[in-house]
Amino acid sequence: MAFAAAIGAMPLDMPESVLVKFTGSLQPGVTLRDVVNAIPYVAIQQGLLTVAKEGKKNVFNGRIMEIEGLPDLKLEQAFELTDATAERSCAGSTIKLSVDTVSEYLRSNVALLKNMIARGYGDARTLARRIRAMEAWLADPQLLEADADADYAAVIEIDLDAITEPIVACPNDPDNVKTLSEVAGDRIDEVFIGSCMTNIGHYRAAANVLKGQGENAARLWVCPPTRMDEEKLKEEGYYAIFEAAGSRMEMPGCSLCMGNQARVEDNTTVFSTSTRNFNNRLGNGAQVYLGSAELAAVCAQLGRIPSKEEYLAIAAEKIDPYGDELYRYLNFDQIEGFEDSGRVVSVEEEARVLAEV
Ligand code: SF4
Questions:
Q1: CA 226 / ligand 1 centre spacing (Å)
Q2: % of the chain surpassing 90 pLDDT
Q3: At a CB cut-off of 8 Å and minimum separation 6, what does 227 contact?
Q4: Considering the entire predicted model, what is its pTM?
Q5: Residue 275 CA: which ligand 1 atom is closest?
Q6: Domain 165-326 class?
Q7: Atom 2 (ligand 1): residue with closest C-alpha?
Q8: For residue range 63-73, what is the model confidence (pLDDT) as tens digits?
Q9: Domain positions in the chain
Q10: Which atom of ligand 1 is nearest to the CA of 276?
Q11: Cis upstream peptide for 331 (omega within 30°)
């Protein structure tokens, strides 16, 4: 502030950026979580990242990760990529999306915030100001773009056509990534499907894997991130599938990922969809693999990590043909009657608050 007062400007040191640029398209059975793990996988191959703690090299450390090449991702999917940049020790991240994608998400968010006013959440005027700002953007949508001649600390190009199987983070370091073929056959005692790395589509896909397969071989914990996801999954019958497989259904939120709520048994081997697998976070002495919800469901069913061939066969039969039905997201503006659900504030009062800002 002293600078600003004295010279009328505020010098800020911006971290450098690392550009991660995707080309090609997702191959059958390969999920966005595998794309998340492909980033350290390719960085290791290029000598920009090492796994060992001693003398560790990490090109991402303290820098911004700028992600390009996946413009048609939904916002819910994009979160999975940007969320995980914390595991790379990034200072922040950006992802280049299309105006259509961002507009779709903001329209949904406007409906959600209006419903929060209707439900009596505070502060109504703060919510109303956010609604107005989003509506103003929607009326004239402009997205920030990187300069065409921008300099980057490094550019990492990832060809999605070359990723033909899942990639998982192995015990106990999110950077310790390997292909499914390299870890196939390892025993899995417990499986966690949950955390802010998941969205409703993951739960539908995981349930489809388990449908009609009897009891899980491993103990499966299922925890949708929000109550809205929980309600929808119950309504659509997916909870019944998880329960029929003997899964433990957790209260929506962070659950095992938080490390101080529920815990896995001591010294077990776990497959988890959560963000990080640091020592003792999910349970004392737990050895934790990190990967997709789709692969997690297969691990729960078998009690071990499947081979690439086993997994791809299950994905081809139970996930890929149903993609449009499974990977749908909650667009609140398209849910009939959503604006009035749980209403405790009158329509007139809501309109008055919105008109005042
Ligand atoms: S504790 Fe919660 S917010 Fe934090 S990484 Fe895990 S799921 Fe996300």
A1: 12
A2: 90
A3: 252
A4: 0.91
A5: 5
A6: alpha beta
A7: 254
A8: 999 999 998 89
A9: 165-326
A10: 5
A11: no
